[in-house]
Amino acid sequence: MVTTGAAPHSPDLARLLDDHRPQGPVETADLARARARVGAPDAWDRGTPLHFTASALIVHPPTRRVLLRWHVRQQAWLQVGGHGDPGESLPLDIALREGLEETGLTDLTPWPDAALVHLAVVPVPASPVEPAHEHADLRFLLATDTPDEARPENPASPLEWLGIEEAKRRTTEENFRETLDRAARLLA
Asked: Is the pTM of this model over 0.85?
């Protein structure tokens, strides 16, 4: 595996979306909304009502397990990921950085390739510092050879390795269950 960092040939946002084939009417509509944001100067700005985020489901292919993270704000078990830092605009690079920050895994690599696995527009409830908004979440699969090295970035955000079916039972988010189903097909 390669070490985390800029992925070789990390596609830009427009190419990533052009190469993605949506599965079903919901993702087709989400993709249309996301494409409308490409090229906007604030496409990654968390102050806009709809902005991009990048995330990843971390997998350990030999055991067919996935790594879930407890997200305090959403009160849900989900994948790792988040917002681009200022100046970041390559989705896969953002997912890799977030994966490293949230798990401590230094060997994350796109798996089975660098393609977008799922695009989901997800609602985010208001918080004391942000109004309600939506994320156009760009989801990848990242693999590790060192699952036992995973460490949460803080005690409030534990990590847990699970089989796909247990992960589907653990999450409350239907759109994330779809991501898990897609990972299951690739892990089979």
From this structure: yes
